[in-house]
Amino acid sequence: MIAELSAAMAAIKETAGLAKVINDAKTDAEVKAATIELQNKLITLQAECFSLCDAIRFRDEEIMHLKAKIAETEDFQRQAEGYKLNKLDSGTLVYSKKQFIGDTEITVHLCPQCFGKKVISVLQPMEIMRFDAHFRTFCPACNNKFWMNSR
Questions:
Q1: Which of 97, 116, 123, 145 could cross-link to 137 by cystine, CB 3.0-4.6 Å?
Q2: In whole angstroms, what separates CA 79 from the centre of its chain?
Q3: What pLDDT does residue 141 have?
Q4: Which domain of life is it from (predicted)?
Q5: What are phi and psi of 95, to 5 degrees?
Q6: Residue 151 to residue 145: CA distance in whole angstroms
Q7: pLDDT tens digit string along 20-46?
Q8: Residue of 128, 132, 120 whose CA lies nearest to 96
Q9: Phi and psi at residue 103, in whole multiples of 5°?
Q10: DSSP string, 30-59
């Protein structure tokens, strides 16, 4: 963006110089030549201004994109507050946090794969067979399945 601004300022300076040449010209030929040169410099200046506008628009889009990423990260941090990596009886690693639902305290488990991608996805119970030693859960976001605590 600085290069575009410098080029535009140089074109303005040259245009001002050409206006002085036109003013000082003695013959029609000198006036016409200086006028043509002035028009060329104005066209160059216009192109440089367009480039500068494009650069500013690109920067504005980049700023909006970065602000959205910051907001997304802050939102994830707010939702993930209090969750700690926890090793269950089965050896499975999940992010867990104790929470109250009504008067009952429960432990909420989050999918570690989704958590690593900054997605909060609460693990949901699955049916298990009678002979399974541990409960099973699945992640509704990525569909991974996890062995949980003993029955």
A1: 123
A2: 19
A3: 97
A4: Bacteria
A5: -95, 130
A6: 17
A7: 777 777 788 877 787 888 888 888 888
A8: 120
A9: -100, 0
A10: HHHHHHHHHHHHHHHHHHHHHHHHHHHHHH
